[in-house]
Amino acid sequence: MYDIRTVTGPLSPAAVRGPALAHEHLALDLRRDADRAAVLGAAHADAVTRELAVLHEEYGLALVVELTCRGMGRDVAALARIAKDSGVPVVAATGWYYEPFHPSEVGGADVEELAGTLVREITEGIGPERVLPGVIGEVGSHGDRPSVPEVRTLTAAARAAVATGLSVATHAQLGRGGPAQLALLTAEGLPAHRICVGHQDLLDDPVVHRELAERGAYVAFDTVGKESYQSDTTRLRLLLALLEAGHADRALLSCDVSRHGYLRDEGGQGYGHLFRSFLPRLRAAGVDDDTVDLLTRRNPLRFLTGARTEEVT
């Protein structure tokens, strides 16, 4: 099984004995005129570090998959500092978010040029620090079908994944468009088990979730605690439906902290809401500890490494 690429070096999956957060942001900048709070910058790094250190101590948090990519204010040097200071390994990402956040480099580039950009980052590293990304994501689209530029960036992500062996995590805006994303990515030869379709807990449609899982993709319930988008009660119902349909091995969980107001220091639910609130509710609904371990540790490791079920214990 492949090692996991983290911002501080390779990590054996066997060394990850605690839970992972499968979709988070530790350093990003998505500020636009209408939304000036979508930022986690230098002023917030200490608070982020403290939260991760506490979760490592209290819940054994063993890995964070950080899905801030090109055009989202990615800062791999900050990620390396946070990982070292908190004691929690962090996976960095490459790719392009959905169209409203595409940088100018996307505009005039064809698919091959875009794929080449990703392959270079994956093989040579990001920035002067030469940090090697460990995942392609969160590559995005909005609506039921990707826009023309999003088709190019998603296709480039798939081709880079096929060329390098990395897996792909998507951003499906408000949960929509997952089946179209999966069809596009797999059409490029990327196996479905190396694809995670994002934000499905924002889509109240268990049929779509089962369809994605049956085709072999991971289904991300990754905005846990974002009650302004969807209640955790609905998330719990949707996740239980997926588990009851026999797809516990296809779900990933996280909180997608994406603005400083979500931090505990600022009164938000923080990165630990999954452990403090949602998992206790999941257990109270009858889900056993082995399934919780599958959802929070084994599934993320399998996704990142492209492993099959029996290869991660």
TrEMBL record:
Pfam families: PTE. InterPro entries: Metal_Hydrolase, Phosphotriesterase. Coiled coil: none annotated. It comes from the Bacteria. Keywords: Hydrolase, Metal-binding. Belongs to the metallo-dependent hydrolases superfamily. Phosphotriesterase family. This is Phosphotriesterase-related protein. It comes from Streptomyces olivaceiscleroticus.
